[in-house]
Design a protein that fits this description.
The complex is a heterodimer. By secondary structure, chain A is α/β, with parallel strands linked by helices. In chain A, 39% of the residues lie in helices and 20% in strands. Chain A folds into two domains: 286 residues, 3-Layer(aba) Sandwich (Aldehyde Dehydrogenase, Chain A, domain 1); 181 residues, Aldehyde Dehydrogenase, Chain A, domain 2 (3-Layer(aba) Sandwich). Chain B folds into two domains: 323 residues, TIM Barrel (Alpha-Beta Barrel); 88 residues, no CATH class. The longest helix of chain B has 22 residues. Chain B is globular and about 70 Å long. In chain B, 49% of the residues are buried. Chains A and B meet through helix 10 and helix 11 of A and helix 4, helix 5, helix 9, helix 12 and helix 13 of B. Flavin-adenine dinucleotide binds next to strand 4, strand 5, helix 16 and strand 7 of chain B.
Chain lengths: 520, 454
Amino acid sequence: MTDFRNEPFLELRRAHERDRLIAALDAFDAAPPIEVPVIVGGERRVDPTAASVDPGMPDRVVAAATTATPAEVDAAVEAAGAAARVWGGMPAAERAAILARAAGELRSRRYELAALAVRECAKPWVEADIDVCEAIDFLEYYSRRAVLLDAGPELIQLPGERNTLHYRPRGVSAVIAPWNFPIAIATGMTAAGLATGNAVCLKPAEQSPACAFALVEALERAGVPAGAIALLPGEGDVGAALADHPGVHTIAFTGSGAVGLEILRRAAEPRDGRRHLKRVVAEMGGKNCLIVDADADLDDVVPAVLASAFGFAGQKCSAASRVLVHERVADVLSERLRGSLETLLVGQAETFGTDVPPLIEGASRDRVERVVAEAVQAGAEAERVRRLPDGDGFFSAPTVVFGAPPESFVVREEIFGPVVTVEPVASVDAACDIVDAQAHALTGGLFSRNPRTIAAVARRTPVGNLYVNRGTTGSMVGRQPFGGNRLSGTGTKAGGPDYLLHFVEPVVVTENTVRHGLAP
Amino acid sequence: MPDTLVTAAAPPVDLEPQLLALGRELSERRSPLHAATRGAYDRAMALAASDPQLRAALFRLVDVAPACAGSAELAEHLAAYLEELDEPAPPVALGTRAATSPLARRATGRVAATLVRSMAGRFIVGESVAAAAPVLGRLWQRNTAVTVDLLGEATVTPAEGEAYARRCHEALISLTAASKAWPERPLLERDGIGRLPRVNLSVKVTALTPLTRAEAPDRGRLDAARHLRALLRRAKELNAHLHVDMESMASRELILELVLDLLDEPEFADGPSTGLVLQAYLRDSEELLDRILERTAAAQRAVPLTVRLVKGAYWDHETIEAAQNGWTPPVWTDKAESDRCFERLTRRLLDAHPLVRTAIASHNLRSVAHAVAYARHVGLQPRDFELQVLRGLGDDLQDALAAAGLRGRTYCPVGDMVAGMAYLVRRLLENTSNTSFLASRASGSDLEELLRRP
Ligand SMILES: Cc1cc2nc3c(=O)[nH]c(=O)nc-3n(C[C@H](O)[C@H](O)[C@H](O)COP(=O)(O)OP(=O)(O)OC[C@H]3O[C@@H](n4cnc5c(N)ncnc54)[C@H](O)[C@@H]3O)c2cc1C
């Protein structure tokens, strides 16, 4: 197997690549909405009852999804349990080869899949392409890591005994995926389960069933056996039923803190005569701070704040949501941020150059608007982009909030929208104290040109991913293993060398090799 | 990679002897030591060239200097950079120790600040056009034309774009006023095609607009067009030359199309004199030249476009960005390929005379001598092509060119230190990179070796 390399992004600075994407989108729009089936044990049932729509033009139906019934959830887990024995019994290298083929399937459809992400989730082109690449990366990376893991670690060996440690698949993994990285995150959690020999039941976000379906199609075409992958579209109740199912061994979840904690709580309760402890890999929210020291290069800080706070309209768990800036440069930075807000193009995801697309749904937009209104009521000043597109897309104006009271909602809670607060601090230490006081610890940012400051912050920060002198989003598989601490998650690192350990159980075999005093 | 273009336009074999003679002549004519800043600067550069880690530390110091509130803070940074070295060189250990007591720290900081200022002073002509004017006048007097570049911080807001445009207008006006007093210099003021403006301003499009988006060149182009159109009108009214610098790949399409489109507009059919830049380090620079020549031929402007040929100043940036994104680098990876491409483009540009005016911008004696030899070979007069150098890097070459009766122009950055940092760091990087012509010469490489065909 070749060494892992991140899938190259499309070089969108070249016109011919952009033209190919536009052609792919035209083809996508010319086709009827995608019909997303329930897939259980390789069988498909199509009876659409729910629709995913283009957040930029909600009249446009992107996909019509079939909703999984409770009986289908049961059947899927049961089929998965049976398939897991076959799939898990296969040599790791064979499974890896199949997953690498699935990566190839995605690769061969990358323009079309990017178009799908543009339509179903309003991912602007650059980010839609990154989402496809990251999905490919997860398949390629985890399949390689699984082969390495399969070899097992070295143990101490003394004469007369042979010690081995190997990892067994845990059985059935439930994957509950979000819509904000509609292909990548679903693929990552699914690939981790499959690569380690588990069967996977995938419950996609109701906002992005077609993206998940594309993944399942790729896996099926690549040769993942029927039953080892199930697709269970639906709302939260489907996810809850799946996570609760006694036949599920591992739950991989990415989403809101409330749901994640509920999953963790229920997973811990021994019920239904279960013979195993469920393991939960949960990736939840963040309240991410970007610290700007007095010696920072503001030429770099401004674009990094814009990209981190407003990229994909702030709908990333890694998004920067508080800028903690040294008081010596606070006025200058604030002034430049205010001015730079005007440079943001709020627009349709399909328009090259759009900086801020619509939010995923009307409810999100309304929530963000409420947060901003409350902040203003509490005495804060909200600087907002004034030009929004016409039409009924779920657009929300990018907003920088100054002077928000420390206890206000906008300062304390995750917003998941294009809103960032700016708060002057007396020192980097004071900023670290603020970060330390938070319940969340997902990503953090630091702009400083002093190596000592960088080392000190790196030592004391609780966050899972600290980004220095760059934006806080855009982790790469294998290069920036991603995941948060504290209430942000279970401390697991997607795209990292130890992620797969959460999907396996270690077994140690010790054999006495001495026979009548003779050791071979 | 098979390169049919090389064979198609291979240099005539008989060019080499003249080229070598020219290279030797220019080398001999180089003025001895230049400027008062040499001592500290040379020592710093020698130190930097000797050790890549030290080089990095030095650049980071220069980079952070304007953001430091005082000499103690600068010393604190210096000490932190030096701490990161694997094995501190003796003077470095001194620096680390010096930063321990507050008094010593301020002293170290002051020394560092002086060093940084002296480096800046070498590359930056003055804090303002007014302050720079006497220097520009002296250069002109010594038979070297100039182009002024207004240094600026990155433009991230529309207001910053406006402010830069305003500074450009003011610079055109005050340079016009200042240049009235300059004595006549026939070589610099007229070529075989016509009059050459005395006032010459280089502008950066990314400083005019905060809307550079690599994947959406039209956004920045439409925004920058307003400003650039106004500047072209101003230049036309004042009979000045406006040169649009080329930057990184993120803005390349934006800039190229912006300039070519504006020059198609009827009001600019008869002026002003305008230029753009072709970067030979780009793998597709030959196709870019095709595009430029086609559009220029079609436009049929009364004043020909000037093309400044350079190797390209963003080599590290392009290489790193490509590696991080998994792209084939848009630039050549072997220095000699850039040099050869530069020579191919030189010949094509000089062949295209008088459709375009050519300015060869390089400090590489081989590249320059090649251009001069080829120009002679195709029968061009010295006034019919220009040779350009950067202030602080090409000062000795600039004097040699003037002494040899060639038409030279020096690119003169103007602005304060904060604004100049990115520029300064790029120049320092270039000057100490081990592939650079100037670094090779400084380290004592043999002249014949330096003049050898790449
Ligand atoms: C008057 C003037 C104006 C300029 N304007 C611009 C401008 O608008 N835009 C711009 O981009 N640059 C501009 N430059 C800078 C120019 O591009 C070069 O960076 C600089 O002149 C050094 O090149 P050289 O020929 O003098 O030296 P040399 O030492 O011969 O060449 C150095 C150059 O070679 C290239 N190089 C280095 N390493 C490698 C490698 N491993 N593989 C391939 N190529 C390599 C790089 O381009 C590097 O700058 C200008 C230069 C001058 C003199």
